[in-house]
């Protein structure tokens, strides 16, 4: 009886998503969401000692807890159970630092191209400092790339129980409802988010940018999770988010969610037309204020 019921449930679960999307992206999406949930549940059930900082990576500001590798393993296991031959690039499997991160990405993209296998780019806990300090704004981020392009992305906020996802050309969603950016007519009315990055150079760029921007916008927020700030641009809570130095796993899922919500995800220095996961300096916007923000950053001497 129970086995029969399990079979029926499994059958329904397999059928449901494929009715609205074609099969391949929907099974990638289902796996992305499922794996983000597994990691998110580990985050919310973590005890205080689990959140103890195990290692500081590059410097005292770059933290790693006991839970990060557990979440990464859980995400990988979930993906590989469904797609045993797919490639996975995870933050915790790469040495700290921008150059190791860029090298790992290009070698995985190359491998993905050569083997024609999808590449998953995952961040088990985006916003680790928030996680450690109980600031309740951090999230697993799971993206899948085909031919070097992100086709599916999911960011799950386990505290607010908010699931952001997007499928290439199929739109962006929050808890199953379609979302879109909310363009603000002028920069003075825009709420801008930015990073407070640990690196010396990116910190000094951020301070300059903050100084230039603050008098010209409604306000600035530094919320501490790139993946979630991108989700928040996508659903219209923020007009723009920029950051000087990020890795592919911070932005892969969120970038697609912004684009599919009608926003723009671009390189900060050069006006790239299309979002590229190798881009480490990014600006995401509501389709409107990003150009003005870039002008102010340029005037402030960032580039
Ligand atoms: C979280 O949200 C989903 C809908 O996205 C809902 O089905 C689920 O019951 C919620 N869980 C909790 C614990 O509120």
Automatic annotation (TrEMBL):
Mg(2+) binds at residues 91, 123, 125-126, 250. Its EC number is 3.1.3.25. It is an enzyme of class 3 (hydrolase). GO terms for molecular function: inositol monophosphate 1-phosphatase activity; metal ion binding. Gene3D superfamilies: 3.40.190.80, Fructose-1,6-Bisphosphatase, subunit A, domain 1. The keyword Magnesium applies. Belongs to the inositol monophosphatase superfamily. This is Inositol-1-monophosphatase. It comes from Triparma strigata.
